[in-house]
## 1
Amino acid sequence: AADCVTTNPKTIRTDEFAISALNVMEEKKITSLVAVDAEGHVEGIIHLHDLWGTEMV
């Protein structure tokens, strides 16, 4: 799997709005972001499909 991983994934802070995540995904032409806290610690992953299933966007 080492040859398939993204070594510098795009991130978004967990205190950002969902629309910000959508904007980054559209701009970068990607479908997921790593969610990090204020210190940069990984909290999870947000996928485009996660956003589609909400009323936030």
## 2
Amino acid sequence: MESASMRCDPLAKVLAREVPTVRVAHPVEKIVETNRRMEVKGRDQELAELYGVHMPARRQLDRVMLRQFHRLPGFESSFVGLDDLDGKGEMITLDDYLGIPWEQPNVAFDLRAEMEAKLGMKPFEPL
């Protein structure tokens, strides 16, 4: 819904649109991610030695399954099941206390347009 000021002011329309943000990873984040991948790979090797080759394959299938579920566009997916599978639920990270959703600025977005883009549909045109 547009307010009266937005109908008159074209700049307000531009500012109300969602602006994609580019996030540059910090070098330490890259090191942490590389370390995490090495830990997962090592854990999978241990499981293969203890329980057989099927166990790392099963964990990989579980990871693929748990990555498929997303929230609606505009809402951040939390991937709780994936975090639990990887053992991240037991650790407190920077995102746990700096990435609190209710402290983020509200960004205006059109849910219908986002879903149409996600599903590959053509935009809705009113009659």
## 3
Amino acid sequence: MVTPFHRGFFQNDESLMHPYRDSTVTSAVMYSVGFTVPSLAILLLEGGWVFTVVARNSNYELASVKSKKSLIYFWLWRVLRVCIIFYFGVVVTHLATNIGKYSIGRLRPHFFDVCKPDWSKLNGTGAGSFYRPFPYIEEDICTGQDSALITEARVSFPSGHSSNSVYCMVFLVIYMQRRLLWEGMLLIKPFLQTVFLLLAIYTCLSRVSDYKHHPTDVLAGGLLGLIVAVLVLYSMKEKVFPTEQMLMKDSDSRMLLMEALSGHHVNEVSAQSAL
């Protein structure tokens, strides 16, 4: 089992004296919203984009079963590809966050509350000596019964909630900016983007008010999520936001797209012959 770096502390460190509280935004809620909302957005927006690509190449609606199936296959292929890229970024964010947590081992603001240190075990300390200047304490003097909670109190930097929520929402906002191009949306797109960003910001702020993290932990986590989202989308932009010309260079995408377009073309020729 991997254990975090055992960082010491000062007895009179007031930043570690906050009470333990339950999370306002639990991990289950954060991951559920952070994964579900972008996945649904990718499903819907890729569908709209695929329809636009096919419709741009024909004047008739799809009528044959073969053409409809080809269009669905191409749509699902695009959804799968973008989702793989999105979740690749999730994994990178998670790994980078945990590397920081376990290598730095910063103590959470509620560390004393869950550790319940026995100050009498320290040399030269005793009752009434709490506010005297003491040396840096590295020995284990915790008396708390929940060892898992004590271990968790040693992984404050950076904030996992902040890094993951910011990554998911920034990825979604940038993706919407490039994919949601319908003119009839007016202010709906910026409104939705603002809501998603506010969700991430609220999650970050709740970690401070719940005494789960120090403000710098949250800032570092948010910055990490932002950097990963931008780097993933920039490095994979030809895969996430391909032009029709780029699709023709990709063998798998070209095959599925050509099947959809060929079925569309067959319908067009049949309609013209009937006339």
